[in-house]
Design brief:
Blueprint: H1 10-63, E1 66-70, E2 76-82, E3 112-114, E4 117-118, E5 121-127, E6 140-142, E7 162-173, E8 179-184, E9 190-192, E10 212-215, E11 227-231, E12 233-237, E13 243-246, E14 249-253
Antiparallel strand pairs: 1-2, 2-3, 2-5, 3-4, 5-7, 6-7, 7-8, 7-9, 9-12, 10-11, 11-14, 12-13
Length: 256
Amino acid sequence: MERESHGFTLIEIVISSVVLMIMMLAILGTFDVGQDVASLGSANLSAQTMSTRSVSEMTRALRQARIIGMDATGMWIQFQVPVDWAQVDSDGDGTLDSGDGDILDGADNIEWGAGDNLNWVARYTFEIKNPADPADPVNLLVEAEEGRAGIDVNGDGDTDDTFTKGCLREYVWDGGGTLRAHRYLTPYSIITTNAGGWGGDVDGDGVADPLFARLNDAGVQDATGHNIRISFFVFRVANKERTVLLHPTSIVETRN
């Protein structure tokens, strides 16, 4: 009497293992692709949000400002905005506690200042982590970093350039030159192509562009121009192979 055999043969086990391995690899590949897409989307959204917020804030302030100073390389811009400063005693307690509802003094001149105070001064500045050593690797972004695809930041046809990275920061001084407030407008994910000598042409006119530049009405850089161009790069690392790079630009007509 013959006995029936049960279980799998060695060949069946091998074939099943191969099929299972192929299925697992396909599932993991799909998962990796999904993670890459999600990572890239998150980095892009983060960079878009930061660039929109910072550029909008600076544009709004500079549109009503008078420019009182600018770094020769365009790394900072100093300004004042109209303030409501002709103080009045609004509650009758003998203390001047609020403005008079306009930005003019008794002679109908604009009351210039910053931080809601007369004669104060504000400054937007590009700041690196180690100003004592601009060549410190912590301050630099190399286009072809190890483990990344490499990005041609300045459009020169290669990915071998090095750029200064830092943040945008706002400072406010009182009329006597004492620092009263400061805050970060962005984290350290801003690239400027002009600081420290690492120049780059970001608008295609053949000239290395500063973060802040004065323009005349024809759009040409002019030290006496009353238009301000804000121009920089924002970067966000999505994963080890890809980096999101945005280039927000804004041209603002100021009061002087």
